[in-house]
Design goal:
Layout: E1 2-4, E2 7-9, H1 13-39, E3 49-54, E4 58-63, E5 65-67, E6 72-78, E7 87-93, H2 94-98, E8 100-106, E9 111-115, E10 118-124, E11 132-140, E12 144-152, E13 157-165
Parallel strand pairs: 5-13
Antiparallel strand pairs: 1-2, 3-4, 4-6, 6-11, 7-10, 7-12, 8-11, 9-10, 12-13
Length: 166
């Protein structure tokens, strides 16, 4: 024991200073985790919301970060006047479809067919001057990067990536 003033104290100032540094690093890490969560890294938010496409023909809205076995949604919007003979056809890569458990498509496609490394979804439209909006709900199968591609048949195509975490 050391005598400090009128007190007998058992203190180790170098250990205490090291402990304070560790506490500050821990507090900073916790603040970073909370900020990341608020920004959408662990769910919905500005960092997670993403879109691919061009507003002239096709746009797909998705989340960059999805939970493994958590609900994911891909919203596809096809611009007006993209219908040919009352049909709108877009495709998703089989790579993306192989990495998810497809839960539902709303509205339901009139036809689904395979074409190489793509699955083509065909929708009948009553009014070709109105945009088509399709919601695809799914659960990611694995952990890590989920890559996909989307495009219009005989039109532009776009790729996107998601991160599936536990």
């Amino acid at each position: 024991m050391r005598r400090v003033g009128d007190l007998d104290l058992d203190q180790d100032l170098t250990f205490e200073k090291r402990q304070w540094k560790v506490q500050r690093v821990g507090w900073a890490a916790m603040v970073l985790i909370v900020v990341a969560a608020l920004l959408g890294v662990f769910g919905s938010g500005p960092l997670s919301a993403a879109s691919v496409g061009d507003n002239a023909t096709l746009v797909a809205h998705y989340q960059r970060f999805v939970r493994h076995q958590g609900q994911g949604e891909l919203v596809v919007k096809v611009a007006p006047n993209e219908a040919a003979e009352g049909r709108v056809e877009f495709w998703l890569t089989t790579e993306f479809l192989g990495e998810i458990d497809l839960q539902g498509i709303s509205p339901e496609p009139d036809e689904v067919r395979s074409a190489g490394d793509r699955q083509i979804f065909v929708f009948l439209v009553d009014d070709p001057t109105c945009p088509l909006e399709v919601s695809i709900s799914y659960f990611p199968n694995g952990l890590g990067r989920v890559s996909g591609g989307i495009g219009l048949v005989d039109g532009p195509d776009f790729s996107f990536n998601q991160l599936s975490y536990p």
